[in-house]
Amino acid sequence: MIIGSAIAVHRELGPGLLESTYEVCLTYEMLERGLSV
Questions:
Q1: Cβ neighbours of residue 12 under 8 Å, at least 6 residues apart?
Q2: pLDDT tens per residue across span 19-29
Q3: How many Cβ atoms from other residues are within 10 Å of residue 36's Cβ?
């Protein structure tokens, strides 16, 4: 589920953004999937 969340975020946002942007979006995606962050 974690890798699936990361792939979903990367597909939606694409490459080239700051790591902090991916971190916020990945946190949201994981919470939506019912994972604890």
A1: 25
A2: 999 999 999 99
A3: 5
Q: How far apart are CA 9 and CA 28, in angstroms?
A: 10
A 10 A CB-CB count for 22 gives: 16
pTM of the model: 0.86
Is the dihedral angle over the CA atoms 23, 24, 30, 31 positive or is it negative? Answer: positive
Choose among 1, 15, 17: nearest CA to 31.
1
All structural domains of the chain with their residue ranges: 2-32
- The residues near 26 (Cβ < 8 Å, ≥ 6 apart) are 5, 6, 9
